Amino acid sequence: METEISLPAGSSREDLDRTIRQRFGTGPYRILRQSLDARRKPKLFWKYRISTGVLPVSPSPEHLLPVARRQGRGRAVVVGSGPAGFFAADILNRAGFSVTLLEQGPPARERRGDILSFEKGGPLLDRSNYAFGEGGAGTFSDGKLTSRTKHISMEREYIRLRYVQYGAPEEILWMAHPHIGSNNLFTLVQQGRQDLLERGVDVRFRQRVVDLLMHRGRCSGVRTDTDEFPADYTLLAPGHSAFPLFRRLYARGAGFQSKGFSLGFRIEHPRELINRAQWGRESVPGLKAAEYRLAAKAESGRGIYTFCMCPGGFVVPAAWREGLNIVNGVSMYERSSPWSNAAVLAAVKPEEIFPKADTPMAVLDSLEALEARAFEHLGAYQVPGTLPPGLPGGRLYSSLPQSSFPFPVVPLDYRQLYPEWLLQDLSDGISRFARQIRGFDTGLILGLETTSSAALKILRSDSGEVLGIPGLYIAGEGSGSAGGIMSSAVDGLRIALQTGA
Ligand SMILES: Cc1cc2nc3c(=O)[nH]c(=O)nc-3n(C[C@H](O)[C@H](O)[C@H](O)COP(=O)(O)OP(=O)(O)OC[C@H]3O[C@@H](n4cnc5c(N)ncnc54)[C@H](O)[C@@H]3O)c2cc1C
User: Fold this and answer.
1) Which residues pair with 29 in a beta bridge?
2) What Gene3D superfamilies does the record point to (predicted)?
């Protein structure tokens, strides 16, 4: 039997146990969904959907998603150990392929050391940073598992079960807004690797794919900077920022198309300001930090929205190579930093923002040049900053609020980075958001957020291969057809199921 239960937010699991015992006796129960109800703020409630009585046995990932295993499938090479590459390798291994997973960066532990050293003033390593290394861009991230992709309930369940198997908190199976946190992701990706190794997958780090192997017009594996990996099945899952690889694929004749994408910056507020607006209180015992998701139309009609909100989180320098200045947001499971941040983004068409870029690769070059511009202005990984009223007119503030960013925040006239029409639209959006969240327009604007969605799409043929390169498959954010941890993981899983397994 399914039933709804509402308890004051901050109630413990014991409170839920007791309530269920009182109403339904001592039989087993399962939480199907848990969400926060703030409609009567400052009174907040946890809403639970509960199943009681005879419960179906919890499925294992393997039972939920059966994969036919066959002998003699041959060798598969998967490039990229992010969510897409990981789940592609998982499925191909279950289907009977002899799988090699290639990652250009180092294992997670070493990667963490490199990032910490960078944030203390060391060099930014071009294969070991917030974008590259074991687990991909998803490792040192916020670890939100929300996704706007529709019709993925079975795949989503499979991925969540795997993550719990690797040590993610069990609550991600039922929370309406599941969140793993960077500290848990660090352990999770290593457990995932251990599982693949025990199942016979050959996981290789520090292998940067620089080209494809071709045989009679078909892709027959990959070449890295140190080795060759011939394969019967080749799948790339290189993520958003694999610009050198995209250029190589283009030169090889892969079909690319530029598409609408989003540009903007991070905005950071004191966590308590957001809590007050969303909960009516600065803190609620038992709750971590308040979330928001906002969307509005600027005066011009352009869509402006917030994205990848990190309650109680940090803004981080997420450049994928030296000389670029890009920001993103992360949080730990506890979500306990004094700040909350989110991307504020405008949907743009490539021809509006880069009018001279007449080919997909010219769009890529222009995007990289934009990411380099902030670095060139500041000469380092310090981050440009301003306040919302200063956006359109380019006002320079003599001082800015404190920030979670690990490097100094330098006041900058954002007109040196973005065109005025874009700043006006983003500014309009922030004014509208301030009608929903009081004080939103007092936030600190930081850096450039350029990686929330891909500017290019790699075209796939009806058989799922990369158009122009038979025998090659691509999945995840790098394909331009997915974005975010869950949707990229689902894409990797689906492409492997549909074209390999
Ligand atoms: C700081 C940060 C926070 C984020 N927070 C969230 C969040 O909370 N929720 C969410 O849904 N999304 C979040 N994202 C986005 C999310 O991480 C990505 O959408 C997702 O990881 C994409 O998965 P992917 O497997 O397609 O690619 P990636 O995770 O980018 O993985 C690609 C991998 O391929 C490797 N690679 C690239 N080129 C080569 C090559 N030539 N040879 C060998 N290996 C190569 C890279 O090193 C990388 O490890 C965040 C991203 C960042 C940077």
Assistant:
1) 52
2) FAD/NAD(P)-binding domain (3.50.50.60)
Which of 104, 125, 175 gets mutated to test ligand 1 (max ligand atoms within 8 A of its CB)? 104
Ligand 1 binding pocket, CB closer than 6 Å: 79-85, 102-105, 130-133, 136-138, 141-144, 208-209, 237-240, 242, 245, 308, 316, 318, 328-330, 476-478, 483-486, 488
pLDDT in 10s for each residue of the chain, 501 residues:
889 999 999 898 899 999 998 988 888 888 999 999 999 999 999 999 998 876 666 779 999 999 989 888 999 999 999 999 999 999 999 999 999 999 999 999 999 999 999 999 999 999 999 999 999 998 998 899 987 776 778 899 999 999 999 999 999 999 999 999 999 999 999 999 999 999 999 999 999 999 999 999 999 999 999 999 999 999 999 999 999 999 999 999 999 999 999 999 999 999 999 999 999 999 988 899 999 999 999 999 999 999 999 999 999 999 999 999 999 999 999 999 999 999 999 999 999 999 999 999 999 999 999 999 988 888 788 999 999 999 988 889 999 999 999 999 999 999 999 999 999 999 999 999 999 999 999 999 999 999 898 999 999 998 889 999 999 999 999 999 898 999 999 999 999 998 877
CB atoms within 10 A of CB 352: 14
Domains, the chain, ranges and CATH?
A: 2-47 (no CATH), 62-257+456-499 (3.50.50.60), 260-360+371-449 (no CATH)
Query: At 210, phi and psi to the nearest 5?
Result: -110, -15
Q: Whose CA is nearest to atom 46 of ligand 1?
A: 132
Q: Please, what is the angle between helix 485-499 and helix 153-165, to 10°?
A: 110
- Do you find a cis peptide bond into 66, omega within 30 degrees of 0? no
